[in-house]
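Subgroup meeting minutes
Present: P.N., E.W., G.H.
Scribe: E.W.

1. P.N. recapped why we're keeping a running log of single-chain structure predictions: easier to compare across weeks, and new members can see raw inputs and outputs side by side.
2. G.H. added today's entry (101 aa).
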Amino acid sequence: MMAIRIELWTDGHLADGTEAWWDGMEAALTNDTSAEYPLLDRVDPYNDVVFVHGELDGLASELRTIMVHAHEGVQALVLKLIELCLAGTTARDAQLKFFGD
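Output recorded in log:
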């Protein structure tokens, strides 16, 4: 299993976050994630990635698409990630950081 820590930083301060197993999310993604989910494809459970303020709307959109076919075990994580994206878009400066193992 691959745990990943996710933190929302707004205006230089830690605003919210979560930690979850990423295995279920990987299973929810199709084989060709780079074409269908170019932002989510950047998340690697073994490395770190940062999404900046201007990318959060697009990331939320990709997550909403996944929510349609996500199995029950992944839905809570997808909803939390959408919530973090939306909270980030209301700040002047936001970063959504994913920290892999």
